[in-house]
Amino acid sequence: MQVIPVAFRGERAVSAPLTIGQLNVAKWLAGSPNSPAALLDQRLPVPPGTPLPAVVAALGALLSRHEGLRSRYTMGDPGEQRVLAAGEVVLRVLPATEKDRLADLGRADPLDVASDPPVRFLAAGTAECITDLVAVYSHLVVDFQALMVVHREFAALLRDPAARLDAVVQQPVDRAHAERQPSRRRRQEQAMRHWSRHLRAAPAHLYARPRATPGPGSGACGMSSQAAAQALDHIAARTRVSRPTIVLAAWCALLHRRTGYDTCRFVMLSANRFESDLRDFVGSLAQSTFVAVEVAGAGFDELVRRTFGAVLQAGVNGAYHVYRQSEGTRAVMAERGLAPSFEPLFNSSVVDTRGFDAPPPRTPAPTDLAWADLPPTNILLRFDLGQIDDTVVARVWTGDTGRVTPSEARELLLALERLLVAAAAADLDPAGVTAALGLEPIERPPGWHLIDGCWVDLAEVQRLLDDALGPGAARLSGPDLTAHLADPALTPELAHERCLSLLPGRHAAITPRRYVVEPQDA
Hints:
Protein name: Condensation domain-containing protein
Radius of gyration: 25 Å
Largest sheet: 6 strands, mixed
Distance between the termini: 82 Å
Structural class: alpha+beta
Pfam family, one: Condensation
Shape: globular
Strand content: 15-25%
Domain Condensation: 55-325
Number of strands: 21
InterPro entries: CAT-like_dom_sf (IPR023213), Condensation_dom (IPR001242)
């Protein structure tokens, strides 16, 4: 293995507090330091015959150009980012036989962003010629749209080392200072009000349903569909709306049919790149935000339009101070007695830059579906969209295969594909949307009730009481969720606190609405 220094030299050495986006990632990493998403890896384009010096020069130019890639970071609120004016990052060059292991090798150890560069470079090839190149970043310094900027600029610099790239309008340090201006603070306050308003109305788990099998498990069903990709092109040509938004509309139609909710209200990620001076920004901007899509009574094209408006509204309210937002969230969750997962129920890493011209139809390859087991998680249901060009690559995953079985995850993906294919030929009225999905509503037996917008299994709430307070310590009565406390030492406040602490991961339960201490016999 060769270790090659990649030198950089910028225009300034400067420091600032962390940006709102960096704070968001820093807080998340503090709670999940070993999460696979703590690091993002990227394969950079290297044409055949590319000499090593050209790769080193292009990487050095990128480091010099984007201050966030040559900074050191102190976590916390407000934290600090310190831009280095000059320095170097090493490029590890391994034999060509190691090309398929570059990402794994780069992710083998955590990045210490306090003292080390927030990016690693690994290449495969020889001292003369590079065949493959991978960069591994801390999520603190890039999101998926930032990766696209780096990919585009690296390719341009490799083609022409003297390429004149557009000036970077805003660096992370500049972003941090801008976010502290009064107008930006007002927008952050508005975003927190948006979050709080929807948190007070959203169900704890939009897809709460009876258990189908007793065993726990976590996994994902992935789909590769050329038929869905072709359908998206035709729908986009007709509606003039981006393809990821169309997929989200179809997903909301599916959720509406299965769950019965007229408004699909859930968490998704906002890229927060609505400002023109963030087009070439390399940093982490994405944050979770609530989206609320009114589905009831809409045909497919109307639903696409409604979804587009809902996504814009969510994006406008997608940037906030995560530490302050967390305080408010905890208060609302305790008040409502909920423990929702704030992982995005819909997550797209796709940026649709193509136009709206539909290509000529062709015979699609058969759709491929595959299940994979995953590490445990509290997520009940999530949809990931990873590709739309030529093939739709998506997956449905769950942390509770007893409620969302592998076969159901497969059927949800196929239903989504059926709806897109049916909507490609022409707009569908509400009945046509339902027919295309080919799904039945979730069946809920006696003992299930809709309480505070949440589908709740009374038996699961009783199990929560038994686990939190001890068997026989509390009895649940009726759909009003009153807990009758048999132990006089248990105050309502203490009982509620204990129930809240054991609520995460119980997808069919919320805490009792009332706690009543039963009188003791004389």
